[in-house]
Amino acid sequence: MYRRTLITLLLLVAHGAAQGTEISAPEWKLSLVSGRGLIENPLDGREDGETFLLPAFSYYGKRFFVSNLTAGYSLVENKRFYIDLIAQPNEDGLFFQLDKPEVAAGSVTSFVQLREATEVSEIDRRISLMAGPSGTLVTELADVSFSWLYDVTGVHHGSETHLSIDKQYPLFDGAIGWGIGAVQKDTDLVRYYYHFTEEEAGVFARRYAAVYPPGDVTDQYVRLQFSYPIGKGFAVRLAGRYSYFDLDGRLPRFIEKPETLSWFAGIQYSIGNGR
């Protein structure tokens, strides 16, 4: 139960964008939302995540910054364009940890493995740390961001390419923000998270790979968020994200819900001098 709550928190805050920005003095902000949040897990046989508390933290110094799960260092920054080096955990690994099985796949007997593939609900995968360059172009209509991230922890030696368009606008006395994006994940990453190993499926692993060969995938998402102040340090906070998981390149048996909706709603309390 505690593991599910923790990973749900990580996935919810991971949905936000983070990048460096031009500032004159260090800024920080600590927030806590009390309400309800839900992460739909796309994996077959795995439960969704739910939480009633959502923390968030950000710090922006002259060069170094932290925004929830993303840490970075600004190389170039001005009002219209900046380049950063960033690091953040891979989302696919978090989904496996959201409903982690009590019995790992390695404990399944060889006899069972020879007869049929292990259930996806019994499989464990590690979380990888992805790091690399990120660039953002700031315009009046939208902010366009591009990043290329590589597995620096050696979990799968794969990479991700992120492209997103985001913007936040004032609305009444609050703010509304939107974003659309796509994440391309390479074959090494997809093979590790979304295909059976021979230990897990025996001869079926090669048969599955022949019918559904591992390949690059491009996942897409749309997100929307709204905040409205209701007192000093307090605000109403609403956010939602629709995600589509590309099945080409993945073994379809791993994905139960290629389309998911994750959201949270509640009252936020914030301290700090950040925006």
Automatic annotation (TrEMBL):
Pfam families, from UniProt? MipA
- Which residues, if any, are the signal sequence? 1-20
Location relative to the cell: Cell outer membrane
- Where's it mainly located? membrane
Keywords for the protein's UniProt record, in alphabetical order? Cell outer membrane, Membrane, Signal
Q: Which domain of life is it from?
A: Bacteria
Q: What PANTHER family does its record include? A: MLTA-INTERACTING PROTEIN-RELATED
InterPro entries recorded for this chain?
A: MipA (IPR010583)
**Can you name this protein?**
MipA/OmpV family protein
Family listed = Belongs to the MipA/OmpV family.
